[in-house]
Specification:
Blueprint: H1 13-42, H2 46-49, E1 54-58, H3 61-69, H4 87-92, E2 95-99, H5 108-111, H6 116-127
Parallel strand pairs: 1-2
Helix pairs in contact: 1-3
Length: 129
C-alpha cells in the first residue's frame, strides 16, 4: 500500500480517518476474497477457512466507533455511502478493526511531520533501526 491524497475534501478529522480506513479496505477485501477462493479450490477445510481474517488498526476514536458500532449519527449522516462498504465484512467477522493508541500507530512517520524522538521510535518499530 502507499500513501496518497484523498479524492474528497474532508470537513473533520473523523471524516478524513474514516475515508482512509474505507479506502484501505477497498484493497484488503478483494485480496481476502481471492484467498477464500484459493482455499476452496485447493480443498482446505472450512474450519481453517473460518480463521482467515484481516486486522486493520485505527487510532481515531470516532472512526473506530463508526466502523465497529456501525451507527449513523447526526454528525456522520452526510458521509458518503461508498465509505460504509466494509460494514458487512466487520459484522461477519472477516475484518477486525482494532483500536490502537496514537503513539503506537506505525504509519505516522510516513504521513506526519514528527519531531526526532517519535520519528526514530516509530521508524525503529517498523524497520528495526
Amino acid at each position: 500500500m502507499e500513501s496518497q491524497l484523498q479524492s474528497e475534501i474532508s470537513l473533520s478529522t473523523l471524516e478524513s480517518e474514516y475515508s482512509a480506513l474505507s479506502q484501505s479496505l477497498r484493497t484488503v477485501l478483494p485480496i481476502q476474497s481471492m484467498l477464500f477462493e484459493v482455499t476452496v479450490a485447493v480443498g482446505i477445510s472450512s474450519v481453517i477457512r473460518a480463521t482467515i481474517r484481516a486486522r486493520v488498526f485505527e487510532d481515531n476514536n470516532g472512526a473506530y466507533l463508526l466502523a465497529t458500532n456501525q451507527r449513523i449519527t447526526n454528525r456522520t449522516k452526510y458521509y458518503l455511502v461508498k465509505w460504509h462498504h466494509f460494514w458487512n465484512a466487520v459484522r461477519l467477522g472477516h475484518i477486525e478493526v482494532v483500536k490502537v493508541g496514537t503513539e503506537e500507530q506505525r504509519g505516522d512517520f510516513l504521513t506526519k511531520g514528527l519531531v526526532r524522538t517519535p520519528f526514530e521510535r516509530i521508524r525503529k518499530l517498523n524497520q528495526g533501526w
